[in-house]
Amino acid sequence: MLNWELAALTVIAARSSYAAPAVIGVGVGSSCTNVSFTNSWLIADCLTKADSSTHIQSSVYLNNKITNDDGTLKKVDGSFLGSCNTYSLGGAKLTCSCQRSAGYTLTSALNLKEHIANYAGRLLSDLSGPPAVPPTSSAALFPSDPSWPLRFGDIACYSPDSDFCSRYPFSNPGTCGVGPGTKPESCYAVREPLSGHVYRAFAQLQVGAPSKAWRVEAYGDLACTEKVGSVEGEEQGTCKKLGGRAVAVKTVPLWNADV
Ligand SMILES: *[C@@H]1O[C@H](CO)[C@@H](O)[C@H](O)[C@H]1NC(C)=O
Q1: Where would one find the signal peptide in this protein (predicted)?
Q2: What torsion do the CA atoms of 195, 242, 136, 133 make, to the nearest 10 degrees?
Q3: Residue 15, SS3?
């Protein structure tokens, strides 16, 4: 009961006066249970402020919020997963063994409570400013398999410098795949070849995510501003014709996720 009262009070404080960044709600340990760390996601069941027993499962993606700064974990943009391994979570303390540039590894710990907290049942990070508590929550649980393999159909070559494409003919209307990715991608394009200015463009998209836990949005431009279609739920596994040719995708988790 005490935990809940604390949670409710702190959330109100966080909403009305967010001037002090120190006010970040109640830490993971006290009002959240089933706290786990998997595939770079911190996941927990946290109390809402509705009553003393209603929990929501939500998650925060950590790989774009923590970096390995020569062996020490720092809370800034940057992927730590590539150079750190052996993670363990005790309460809200994430301990990792990270590679240093000198070649040896250093064990480093980060108190996740400093920037991640329970806001009315939703686990959110304040690293990019005061978090806005999403007005609705999803009932979907964190997927047991968070992968999203893609297959492209009706493929063409796209290049911002058009003469590049004549050198890289694509099979049309062939199909080819990518992935499986497992991360939230804000705008992801497939470059062919890796160093060139040629991107795979596609008019059909198949998402094979076994969990059906993602919505994959397709965009006609490399900045992901012109949406030409999206695939989610039962459409997954089938080949969907888009409303135009796409060159990039955005992957949006359908469970409660702070990306
Ligand atoms: C914790 O996880 C167990 C097993 O998945 C589940 O039955 C339980 O409801 C969870 N607790 C909360 C508070 O959500």
Answers
A1: 1-19
A2: 30
A3: helix
Whether omega before 173 lies within 30 degrees of 0, making that bond cis, reads yes
Look up residue 159 and give its two tokens.
């290049």
- DSSP H or E run through 93: strand 93-99
**DSSP type of residue 188:** B
Tokens of 46: 């946290």
Contact 174, 192 (CB under 8 A): no
**DSSP helix/strand/coil, 7:** helix
What is the Å distance from ligand 1's center to 156 Cα?
A: 47
Q: For 195-214, how does the pLDDT look when each residue is reduced to its tens digit (9 = 90+)?
A: 778 999 999 999 988 888 99
Say how many CA atoms lie within 13 Å of 57 toward its Cβ: 12
- Go through the domains of the chain in sequence order and give each one's CATH number: 9-125 (2.30.60.10), 150-258 (no CATH)
Closest ligand 1 atom, CA of 45?
14
Residue nearest to atom 3 of ligand 1 (CA): 34
| CA atoms lying within 13 Å on the CB side of residue 106 | 14
Distance CA 73, CA 126 (A): 17
